[in-house]
Amino acid sequence: MRSARSTEGAAYLHRSQGAHGEWQGRAYDAVGLPRVFKLKSHGYRLFFPLFALSRLHNLQRGNSRQLNLGL
Q1: CB 46 within 8 A of CB 22
Q2: Is the separation of the CB atoms in 39 and 31 below 8 Å?
């Protein structure tokens, strides 16, 4: 069963996906030490949207009413 929120989230990810299949990320996405240095996790902008879309796809294909952990 699809919820409106999950459908909207998937639509947003599809709209915001670039021509080469990537999503744009922030220059820095984590704090190393405040006002000293910042961290960049290069894969986050690619991995997490794919995880979310994969999770939604698997939930829609399944026939179980039980929500399992993982993708």
Answers
A1: yes
A2: yes
**End-to-end distance of the chain based on CA atoms, in angstroms?**
16
* CB 44 within 8 Å of CB 29: yes
pLDDT reading at 21 higher than 80:
yes
8 A C-beta contact, residue 39 and residue 32 = yes
Model pTM? Answer: 0.68
* Tokens 């996906």, residue located: 17
Strand 37-39 relative to strand 30-33, pairing? antiparallel
Query: How many Å apart are CA 13 and CA 3, to the nearest integer?
Result: 16
Q: Hey, what are 49's tokens?
A: 């949207």
